[in-house]
């Protein structure tokens, strides 16, 4: 009996330190994984040969587009101040390319690995979303998405951009447009990209006298959807009217024009929350275009409150 007890005690003396070491190691791994990284966030990726970003003219666009290919070599993680300076420059100049190109990344052309090598030195972190497979004509396609987080001076929190990827190629980009007024204000958009084929309006009652009032310019042949949310969005009881003023862009969705996506694709089940401009405002797309093009200031619009759902309805 004594011998058996001695053997058990000896085994426990060996086993317990091993368990304690494993607990400490697991705790360290868990703690380190919660810390945002930059260039080392995707160390498991094995980059292929460097592919240059390309700026290809859209044949449907009558506007001149730079065709010079821009290329970047992988860089080490930048110090925070330099990283923010890089972001500010991209927001102001968009790497010299036109939408649907975003920061030199072209939907339908740029591989995710190429975009990652460009973005990783100056963004805060990159996170991968859900992945799935789909079979089309007997061919399996692999779908996933990545959210890129970056800092903009003067803004609270991180700003995000979502990249959808199919078989390693970026197919669409959803980006917040903070800091892009000089490029994508209402006046700049219609001046540089022309009259949008479609303009959609949404007014959602979120508080008793407060509405989310937005205008969306839709360029299906260019692969651009850009949204402007009212800086006011207030309800006036005396005439049952929702009023709002628009100028700054709030976000954009970008894709390859080859995809031929309609507006309903982007808003999904929320399509019923939108109405064409003329139905919502009583203004034609042409009149809206000419008005915005002629003035480089915000435009204020009105829509009848009784054509939109209200709280409690």
Q: What is the total tally of β strands?
A: 13
Silhouette: globular
Annotation field: number of helices = 8
The radius of gyration computed from the alpha-carbon positions, rounded to a whole number of angstroms, is 26 Å
Sheet bearing the most strands, described? 10 strands, antiparallel
Q: Percentage of helical residues?
A: 25-40%
Element-level helix/strand string: HHHEEEEEHHEEEEEEHEHHE
Q: Supply the helix-strand structural class.
A: alpha+beta
What are the segments in which pLDDT stays under 50 over at least 5 consecutive residues?
1-12, 23-72
Tell me the strand percentage band: 25-35%
- Tell me the number of structural domains: 2
**Multimeric status of the protein:** single chain
Average of pLDDT: 79
Gap between N and C termini: 79 Å
Question: Can you walk me through this structure?
Answer:
The protein is α+β, with helices and mostly antiparallel strands and 313 residues long. It folds into two domains: 49-175, no CATH class; 181-307, no CATH class. 27% of the residues lie in helices and 28% in strands. It is built from eight helices and 13 strands. It has helices spanning 2-33, 80-93, 112-119, 181-184, 186-193, 263-267, 277-281, 285-294, and strands at residues 125-128, 132-136, 139-150, 159-166, 169-176, 198-207, 210-219, 224-229, 234-236, 241-246, 249-255, 274-276, 299-304. Strands 1, 2, 3, 4, 5, 6, 7, 8, 11 and 12 form a ten-stranded antiparallel beta sheet that branches. It has a three-stranded antiparallel beta sheet with strand order 9-10-13, with no helix packed on it. A hairpin with a 4-residue loop joins strand 7 and strand 8 (224-229). The radius of gyration is 26 Å and the shape is globular. The model is unreliable at 1-12 and 23-72 (pLDDT under 50).
């Amino acid at each position: 009996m004594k011998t058996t007890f001695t053997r058990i005690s000896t085994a426990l003396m060996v086993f317990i330190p091993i368990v304690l070491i494993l607990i400490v190691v697991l705790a360290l791994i868990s703690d380190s994984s919660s810390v945002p990284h930059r260039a080392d966030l995707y160390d498991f990726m094995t980059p292929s040969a460097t592919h240059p970003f390309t700026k290809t003219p859209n044949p449907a666009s009558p506007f001149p587009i730079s065709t010079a290919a821009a290329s970047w070599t992988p860089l080490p993680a930048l110090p925070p101040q330099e990283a923010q300076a890089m972001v500010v420059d991209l927001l102001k100049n968009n790497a010299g390319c036109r939408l649907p190109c975003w920061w030199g990344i072209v939907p339908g052309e740029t591989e995710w690995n190429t975009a990652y090598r460009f973005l990783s030195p100056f963004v805060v972190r990159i996170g991968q979303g859900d992945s799935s497979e789909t079979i089309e004509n007997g061919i399996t396609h692999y779908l996933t998405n990545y959210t890129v987080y970056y800092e903009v001076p003067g803004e609270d929190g991180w700003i995000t951009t979502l990249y959808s990827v199919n078989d390693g190629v970026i197919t669409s980009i959803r980006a917040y447009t903070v800091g892009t007024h000089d490029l994508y204000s209402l006046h700049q958009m219609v001046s540089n990209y022309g009259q949008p084929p479609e303009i959609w309006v949404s007014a959602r009652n979120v508080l008793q006298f407060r509405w989310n009032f937005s205008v969306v310019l839709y360029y299906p042949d260019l692969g651009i959807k850009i949204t402007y949310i009212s800086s006011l969005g207030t309800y006036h009881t005396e005439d049952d009217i929702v009023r709002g003023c628009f100028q700054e862009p709030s976000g954009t969705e970008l894709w390859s024009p080859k995809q031929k996506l309609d507006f309903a694709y982007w808003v999904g089940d929320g399509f019923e929350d939108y109405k064409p401009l003329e139905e919502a405002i009583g203004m034609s797309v042409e009149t809206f275009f000419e008005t915005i093009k002629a003035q480089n200031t915000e435009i204020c619009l009105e829509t009848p409150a009784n054509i939109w759902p209200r709280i409690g309805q």
